[in-house]
Structures are given as structure tokens and as C-alpha cells.
Amino acid sequence: MTATLALEQQALLAALWADDAEVAIKNIAPYAVLARAGGLNDSATRLRRGLLAYRSHGRELAVRALQSAYPVLARLLDEDNFAPLARAFWQAHPPRRGDLACWGDALPEFVQRLPQLASEPFLADVARVEWALHSASTAADASIDVASFGLLTTHDALGLSLCLSPGLACVASDWPLVSIILAHQAAEPDLQQAAASLRAGVGEIALVWRQGFKARVREASPAEAPLLVALQAGQPLGQALAASPDLDFGAWLAPAVQSGLVTGARAL
Amino acid sequence: MPHPAGIGWRHPHYAQVLEERPALDFLEVHSENFFGEGGAAIATLMQARVHYPVSLHGVGLGLGSAVGIDAWHLDQLARLVDRVDPVRVSDHACFARGMGRDGAIHAADLLPLPFNRQALDVLCANVQHVQDRLKRPLLVENLSAYLDWASSDQPEPEFLAALARRTGCQLLVDVNNIYVNALNAQPDAQLPGGLPDPLQACRDWLAAIPADAVGELHVAGHCRVSDAQGDIVIDDHGSRACDAVWQLHAEALRRFGPVPTLVEWDTDIPPLAVLLDEAARARRSVARPQAALA
Known about the structure:
The complex is a heterodimer of chains A (268) and B (294). Helix content of chain A is 54%, strand content 11%. In chain A, strands 2-3-4 form a three-stranded antiparallel sheet, with helices on both faces. A two-stranded antiparallel sheet of chain A has the order 1-5. Chain A has helices at residues 3-17, 21-28, 40-69, 71-92, 107-113, 122-136, 151-154, 177-186, 191-200, 225-232, 237-243, 249-258; strands at 160-164, 169-173, 204-211, 214-219, 262-267. In chain A, a hairpin with a 2-residue loop joins strand 3 (204-211) and strand 4 (214-219). Chain B has one domain (5-293): TIM Barrel. Chain B is α/β, with parallel strands linked by helices. The chains are: A mainly alpha (268), B alpha/beta (294). Chains A and B meet through helix 1 and helix 3 of A and helix 2, helix 3, strand 5, strand 6 and helix 4 of B.
């Protein structure tokens, strides 16, 4: 018999996520102790103060967690705008897991739909790349299997595929996302250059991958992007090459292996 | 006593602890921060475990949740326990999960349970489930709670003692949480009758816990927040433990024996030297609780 307990727990969760704090207090009151030593007023104040402590804890946590996953978005919006965004997202999309590092994947869509941010349409794509970086940083570790590249000489391109970096993701955008992110991460290009590309409406394809423990981003060339997308979909190398006719694969492979983008080859 | 005092090992001190290897009896980390399959954090922890026993302290199982334990969460924890082989695995006597508008949600907080039979049954079943999966006893920690349930019908230590008896888990007694609860339970000073002694309430709490059920102690700092909404003491882990908390720590040691003690510090994290100083104080108390009481 857990009916009462389940109701109590639902009531507290509802009170934590209620839009209006006064409504929240009213809703939880029937389940909470009201008649304590200090008399009714005193204990009502305590209940209010306690519930508000829980509510503000969650909202502060939301800001910190999203700042950690979306550092560039946080800087683009600055604290005054990012904190209310994080709190609104917390209200609309409560965490589903007990690990807050998993929470926030829906923020790009949320940003895209916010009317207040409609004048800055590149923000959602910046957020998509940041989530890919955040996810890549805890993806499974991989080491380069040099010997496996021997398969390239013994197998037909339709009978093998390439192993890609853990966490690899391509995000194509009408905006210069990579320039914007690198300008904030490494000041290369500088912010003025990134802003000029933004004004000029330069589109970029962001390529996210792991090099050692570091999640990295660079611009993908239009020639290599279809190859990576095809390989990521599990297609044989032969098919992936057919999808990227402009790529000089021989020249591309060595630096791709060196930077950790490609970690090995595997027979299909 | 093999592991008398440790610190909560947080990100700002990852590199320094690995480089300087200060004399600590164990390192405590929050399990959820190492759930990732790979990456720098888990690699750092695997380095640390070569030099220190590691205590995995969870903040997300929500052991008292009526909807049960998240299978995904338990899978991550089980994998981490396999990797790290920790000296202890702990979490809290709280709930965190419930049903939202469209599926289960997690409050990312340690929400209080009523102290009654129903909550005890749920908590025991969930603790047993986790222990069966991990094939080891858990330690379960008492909360600082900012809300009291009307349905509570037994004292907290009695509830926790029953949990330990029924599941074979050990208790992790956070003496700061006991003190914070005692401070928040005080009626307003202007009321007739004067203030009860919060320390006495804490001593009574400790006296109601079976001595052999306690496997770890926590000491930490708290703060008082006074604003337009009222007055509340918050367990923020953002300062040195106060004298009253150290006194309770010594009393707990006298009652429970030389139990390993963790110095928790999670916000406004100070230089490592401050944490080591707090750990040294804890270690001195574990060695000589009578002296710490004097």
C-alpha cells in the first residue's frame, strides 16, 4: 500500500514545478505539518520558507547545469538573459534522470521556438553543437587501431567501413557556428571576424569529435561531410565514397586519423 | 581503524590531489558525476583509486521514491561500482522521482520522506533492490529536510534504525543535517517558554540510533538565510563545520566508535589546505573523541 506516499510525492513534485509559488504552497499545505510549536502562523511561514528553498534550489541548479553544457550560449545571451532561459527550460522540461549532465538535450529546440529569440536564429544551432560537444566529452574512450587500416589494402571498399571518433556529430547550419564557438573558446577567429561572417550569412558545417579526452569542433568541408554522415549511418566505405565524389580520400585519411576523427577500419 | 577521515573530492582539486597526494584516508565523490561511459572525469577517478580508497556517494537514486528506482540509474551505478571497487557506496533516505505530465521526472534534489510504515516499506524495498544488484550493503544518509509531512508518525532515528534492521544496510549519519533540522525546528525566539537547546535534541537523536548500525559520519557547514520570505537554515556545504557540529561529531564517535568521517564541502569550495585542515580535525576526533568533547 503506497497510495498515500505516492500522492504525497506527486504533490511535492507538483508544488516544485507549479508556475505560481502561491498556488504551490496552497497545494502542498494539506500534506505538510502545520500545527507545530510556534502556532499556525509560525508553521505556515516555515512551510512557505521551506518550499521556496526547494523551488529556488532547483532553479539555481538548472542555471548551473545548463551553463556547464552550453557555455557559449550562456555568454552570447549573458547572465541576465541566460538564467531566465534556464529557469523557463527547467519549468517546461523537468529532468528525467538523476544525472543532470543528461539534462538539457531539448534546449536547442526550446531556444528555436522562443519568440523572444526569433531575431537571433543562429542561437539554436550554436546550442546543437554545444550539446554535441557536451555529449562527446563523456562518450566511450577509443584508441586508434593502426593495424586495422591494413584492411584498406586487403578488402574491397564495399566490404569494409571506418570506425569514427566517439561522439562524432555533424551539424549543418545557415550560420557560421564554428566561427562563433571557436571565437569564444579560443579567440581564433576573433569575435569581430565571427560577427562579420554572421552578418554576411556565411553557413558552416560543424564537425564535433573527441581527440583523446578533449571534445573538439572544427568546420567540416562540404566534400568530407557526406562521407562522415554516411559512415556514421553504418554504410560501407564504398557507398560513403560514392556519396562524397568531391573528396580526395587519399589525402584526407592521414590527417583524419592523426586528429582522432577516424580510429580504425573494420570488415563488414 | 583503516579509514578515519576523508574529503569530498571535487573538480577544482582533481589535479592538485593527484599531484600532491596529501595524506587522506579516503576520497569521496558523487557517483553521478562519473556516470559517463568515458572521458576525462572517469579517467581521473581511475587514477585516484590507485592511491586512495574511494567512497561513492550518490545523490540521485531517490531510494524512497514510490515509483521505484530508475533502472537506467542503477545500471550506471552498477557499472561504476564495478570499475572503481569503492570502499563504500551510499545515498540518501529521500525521494526524487515521480510522474510528471508525460513520464517520470527527477527533482535533482533530496526530498524528504514521511516517517511512517508506508514510506519505510518503500524505502526498504528499494534499498534491498539496489543492494541485490550491487551485491553489497549500502549506506543510507539522514537528510536535512525543509518540509515535515503530516503523515509522519515515528521519530526519524527510529525509522532509520528499522531501515537498517530490515535491509542490513548501514546508516550514514550526517551530524550537520541533524543540527540543521534541530535549528529549523526551533520556534520563534519571541514565543513564551524560551528556546529549547538544539544540541540536546541532536544528542537525543543520536542516542536513538543503534550503535552498530553506523558506517560513516558526515560533517559540513550550513548557513542561515534571512530574507523577505522568512528565516531558514540551509545545509549548503559551503563553509567550515561550526563548533556545535564538531561537538556532535565527537558525541557520535563516542557512541558509534571510530567511524570513518567525511568532510563535505560543495559550494564556495576553498583551497585544498582548508579541506585538509578540516579532515585533520576529523581525524583527531576519530582518534580521541573524549578530547574533542572537552
